[in-house]
Task: structure prediction
Amino acid sequence: MAPRKLAAGNWKMNGTLASLAEIDRLLADHPASGCDVLICPPATLIQAMAAKGIATGGQDCHAKASGAHTGDIAAQQLKDVGASHVILGHSERRTDHGETDAQVAAKSVAAHEAGLVAVICVGETEAQRDAGETLDVIAAQLAGSVPDGATAANTVIAYEPVWAIGTGRTPTSDQIAEVHALMHERLSARFADGADMALLYGGSVKPGNAAEVFAIPHVNGALVGGASLKAADFGPIIAALSAA
Ligand code: PEP
Result:
């Protein structure tokens, strides 16, 4: 079974109820025919967005199922309001909140137990790339962040170079291909259906570069930040993935 193609949007800390009009526009103007579409809005919008019939995800969850963790959200709570996925280990969580690979793995287990698909993010910093450490960093993050219970059905991996997120800069196709080949190889070696896990690229994907990104071997879709906020931008990215 080939990995399913997925166009995933990460709204980060953007959007209010009024922003849901973009989902109406997306569904009306850009029906996805050839790929899955997911939007991960702020937690405040998950229930209303899911009610529109589009796959919806959280942007983080706690590793525990409940308890005294003020401000956190459990995976089961995301599921309860209609989420099907949750982004875990985004570089902004790793940087802003000091999340470690072990914590990301624990959160991924919690997501799986709640019946959510974990979208686990990995990616090197610019300093690590300049030092020639990219492949070692990605291999270590994969080994540490992806739990043993991961399957092609419950896990998606997103390669997001930290220096490409929100900067308008993207790696070359060869650089993306090199990392995705490594991820495919490592996941295939470790998991029975690892070859079928969807591998997304993320970092300044726009309508203008989407087709080029989706032509790269072992790129099965994208995790899109800024360009997922507007239907006029995300729609063409979905179309490019459908056509790839
Ligand atoms: C992201 O935050 O996951 C991301 C890829 O952002 P952007 O597309 O804005 O670079």
